Amino acid sequence: MAALVIAAPRVSPTEAVPAPLALTELTAEPLPAVVRQPRLYVGVVAAPDVSTVKFVDVQAPRLNLGLTLEYRLGQRWRLATGVQRSTKEYYARREDYDWTNYPRAQTRDFSWVEGECTVLDVPLNLRYDAVVQAHARWFGTAGLSSFFMQRENYRYDYLDGGTYKLWEMPGLVNANRHLFSVLNLSAGYEYGLGTHWRLQAEPYVKVPLAGVGAGKVKLLSAGFYFGLKYGF
Question: Is 205:186 a contact under the CB 8 Å cutoff?
Fold first, then answer.
């Protein structure tokens, strides 16, 4: 009976035996550094500001100056407040004033009243960044302002016996305050100067929800903020 013989493969003495595959060390590429977005912003703003009562007259712009404070709630939302000081100068019709506390004015013959008030404006606004780019943002803001009337001056010319006379109200100091009585609406553009500094341009309007000042007039204001802020 024939036996089954398995022959070993012949290897030439000069033929090299394949070496096992070498282990290659894999090195992960470093991840790009995450840029930390500031959470809190402190800034300054300035604006030419005009005021009117029912659009009957618009005076030359007056300067509005302020400090701002913003807290970033997320990638697109921010809560903003601060304090701004501005002078409101305007003309209004007699019927636009509430003369309840000034009975003599109700009997006098006049048509126009000139007002000039120094106001501290404390806003509480919510901002939404609608367009977010590498170094810029387009945003919209809405909120409410509280007005603290630092100083109020009113005057009018009235006819008495065929002669015009001037009446001036003695300057009122810190006499009126109006909490959350003004609606703030604005839209703007913000540009980043590095990680921390921001430039900002923002047209705005302040719509009265209630009367302000001694005469409780519906004072509308508008202007254009220019701001610089720093993020921490």
Answer: yes
Q: Report the domain count for the chain.
A: 1
* CATH code, domain carrying 208: 2.40.160.20
| Domain that includes residue 219, residue range | 40-92+116-149+174-231
Taking the complete model, does pTM exceed 0.70, yes or no?
yes
* CA dist., res. 84 & res. 65, Å (int): 6
pLDDT per position as a tens digit, 124-136: 999 999 999 989 9
Q: In whole angstroms, give the CA distance from residue 147 to residue 136.
A: 32
Domain-located, residue 157: no
Domain annotation covers residue 97: no
- Using CA of residue 209, residue 142, residue 88, residue 61, what is the dihedral sign? negative
Label the pairing between strands 40-53 and 197-208. unpaired
pLDDT digits (tens, 9 = 90+) for 16-26: 555 555 555 55
